[in-house]
Design goal:
It contains ten helices and ten strands. About 40% of the residues are buried. The chain has about 230 residues and is an alpha/beta fold. The structure holds cytidine-5'-diphosphate.
């Protein structure tokens, strides 16, 4: 079986990482959560004085980009990789609402994207990778053999993310989560640099009414036709 590249893009919190993780496990591929990388850069900006209240000082961040090292380390208990920011495991911290509220401003900065896209392309150089994000099928791997564009109804997405945060004991309200998803989708789809959009050759997967097993078997079926 030849190894392919799988690009999964779509709106905030529609289950891209869940599907990407499942596929990587089934196929023995590497899973890369590109959103975690943008979240880690946002965390660095927050911790290093590049936010004035809620507003990002772009020059401050761009001047500090060379200080930021991003790596992944496999966490056997989770069965997935944790992200390291300058050697520190920040996997939990980057999922907090204050990071979610700032990450899309950071992800709109051209220099940030240039740095992270280069790392992502290097990680996928040997194929056998499933990467999820916003620009994977359009910018990072425009020649990916399989491109999936995921979506789900906004109320389904908000309910899922709220439940996930609740399980982790992260303070938030359903309304706050709903607003965050709406704001991020708006920034992500309208930004100048690599906006979120469906690649022309992507397959649309609306998982509003699908179980995790159902979405996995659909995607595995698409993979089997390509390998
Ligand atoms: O998991 P969730 O859908 O909440 O988002 P994420 O994948 O963790 O991504 C967080 C944010 O990073 C997104 O809202 C985008 O602003 C940005 N992002 C991006 O611009 N490009 C990517 N390839 C991945 C994420």
């Amino acid at each position: 079986m030849n190894r392919i590249t799988i690009a999964i893009d779509g709106y905030s919190s529609c289950g891209k990482s869940t599907l990407a993780k499942q596929l990587a496990k089934e196929l023995g591929y590497t899973f890369v959560d590109s959103g975690a990388m943008y979240r880690a850069v946002a965390l660095y900006a927050m911790q290093n004085g590049c936010f004035n209240h809620h507003e990002l000082n772009e020059n401050c961040l761009v001047n500090k980009l060379d200080e930021i090292a991003i790596q992944f380390t496999f966490n056997a208990s989770r069965g997935a990789s944790d992200i390291l920011l300058n050697g520190k495991n920040v996997e939990n911290e980057i999922r907090q609402m204050d990071v979610s509220n700032k990450v899309s401003q950071v992800a709109a900065v051209k220099e940030v994207r240039k740095k992270l896209v280069a790392i992502q392309q290097e990680m996928g150089r040997n194929k056998g990778v499933v990467m999820d994000g916003r620009d994977i099928g359009t910018v990072v791997f425009p020649h990916a053999e399989l491109k999936i564009f995921m979506t789900a109804r906004p109320e389904v997405r908000a309910a899922r993310r709220y439940a996930e945060l609740e399980t982790k004991g992260e303070p938030s309200t359903l309304e706050e989560v709903r607003k965050n998803l709406e704001t991020r989708d708006n920034i992500d789809t309208t930004r100048k640099e690599d906006p979120l959009k469906q690649a022309e050759d992507a397959i649309v997967l609306d998982n509003s009414g699908l179980s995790q097993d159902e979405q996995l078997s659909l995607a595995l079926n698409w993979v089997s036709k390509l390998t």
